[in-house]
Structure formats: C-alpha cells, structure tokens
Amino acid sequence: MEVTYWRYLxxxxxxxxxxxxxxxxxxxxxxxxxxxxxxxxxxPLKVFISVDMEGVSGVVDSDQTSATGxxxxxxxxxxxxxxxxxxxxxxxxxxxxxxVNDSHxxxxxxxxxxxxxxxxxxxxxxxxxxxxxxxxxxxxxxxxIGYHAKAGSAEGVLAHTGNGRTIADLRINGRSVxxxxxxxxxxxxxxxxxxxxxxxxxxxxELRELVPNIEGVQVKEAIGTAAARSLRPEEAVRLIRxxxxxxxxxxxxxxxxxxxLPVRFEVSFTDPSLALMAxxxxxxxxxxxxxxxxVVDHYLKGYRFVRVLYKFIQ
Length: 314
Ligand SMILES: [Zn+2]
Known about the structure:
Blueprint lengths: L4 H13 L2 H11 L15 E6 L10 H4 L6 H21 L4 E6 L16 E4 L18 E7 L19 E6 L2 E3 L1 H11 L4 E7 H8 L6 E9 L3 E4 L2 H17 L13 E7 L2 H8 L5 E2 L4 E6 L2 H14 L2
Parallel strand pairs: 1-2, 1-4, 2-3, 4-7, 7-8
Antiparallel strand pairs: 5-6, 5-10, 8-9, 10-12, 11-12
Helix pairs in contact: 1-2, 4-7
Bound molecules: zinc ion (ZN).
C-alpha cells in the first residue's frame, strides 16, 4: 500500500497527542486495522465428536459392527451418516473446528471420503487416549454418537465396557460406569462438558446419572441387549443434527464432570485368570477373585491404564 504524506502526518499526530482513538483511525487508514463494520473472523469454536457404533440406529448384532460381519459395510455407512449429522448440527451452532474420533472396534470404520466439512478424522486404535484421543482443553464441547450401555446392563443393545469378552465391570471411585462414564470424566479432567449422547434409552439414562442435563438423542429403544425398535436412518440423522445444534448452543449450562482425586479404579474381569495376570503389574492390588484395583493421582493416568488392561490382558 502507498503511504501518503498526509497519512504519515495523521499517525505521527496521533502518537504525539497520545490519543488512542486518533491512532486507531490513523492505523485503519493505513490498512493495519480493519475498518469498523468489516466482518471480523469468528472466534474459534472447537467441537470434539467421539463416534461408537453399537448405539447407531438399526444396529442390534455384532455381525453389523464387526469388520468381518456380512452387514458391516451397510452399517459403517449409517455410522458415518450419524457422525455427519453431528458435524452438521455443530456447524449450524457455530462450530469452526470439528474433530471426529472413530471410537469403535478397530477405530477404522468411518468413511473419510463421505465426512462433511470442516471435520478432521482420527482413526485406528493404537492411541493411548482411545475414544477420547485428540481432545484437549481448547475444545468447547464434546459429543458422543452411537454410544451404548455398560457391561452387565439388563437392557441396552450390545452392552459392554471396553472389551465384552474380558471386562465384567469398571468402578471409578466406587461408582460402576461404562465407556460413556469413563469418557465423561476424561473430558471433565480437561474442563470440557459432554453435551450430547445418542444411542438407545439405556445408554442415555446411564450418562444422565453423571450429567443430568446432557442432551440425549434416542435413536432406538433397546429390547433386552440383542434387539431394538429403531428409527429410520433419515429420522435418526435429523434428530442428531437438531439435538447437536441445541446442545452446542446450551453448552454453558452443562458442567464438565471430573472424577475426584485421588482416583480409585476397580476392574472386575469375566475370568479369575485375567485378574491373576493383571495383579502382576506393580501398583495393582487384587481385591477379589475376579477383581483388581489401583489408585492414581491423575485421572488420565488411570484412564490410559484401563485402556491397556482392556486391550492387552486377554
Ligand atoms: Zn463401545
């Protein structure tokens, strides 16, 4: 830009007069400050979306959620559609940055070529923070899509915690929780509220025990643990989009829920030999035939360790 002599005079006069208003006007004139009325870039609003699969509308059997199942290709598309619904809803509510974390099984289910802008995707499951990988304190809100009830639930499609074959129950500071509860505390540790969960009625009721005013989008009604009455995908997607926009807008009313420190984790296995193996790890205490416990001074340390137990004590 050409700096004319009169512009120079205006700036030097503003500095001499020590006048902030005159200086702003002079700098505006020089092009250093946007003139009043020009569109300022929006404040960043970052939203994190963790997407599991058992709670997607229509899912009732592991044949639909396992990469080797014959219906898997159909249901991973529906999972992607529900993730997109959350992305669209977050965008409607002003999200400028959206991070999606594939959080089911291999964590390689979502079809990246179908994912809506402006999302980025974290995939594959060798990641210490698992279903919460990528979340940090700069995010305004977290959203849980396709979530399911915890291990041992009488009701809740494909209810399990971490690993359906090995984990019978997980307790944090004495309270039995599932993946959703464990993840709510992880977000809470970072000061991030979990503002929406979608899934069946059991998954939603379970998370409302920790976050009473969480937005719940019920896309199916579980009948026991292996059947459900589901909404058509089109309808599920509409409810998730609308629910997400609503939840992001009222994020200020929904509190982050950290676990109180120090945190005691107790894991009950389905087989005593798994507890025997876990007991060999220093700092782990055997508290029952099927159960081990450990205490940590930082929640995320314990979170990462529970992930290791799920994945590697088999
Ligand atoms: Zn899961």
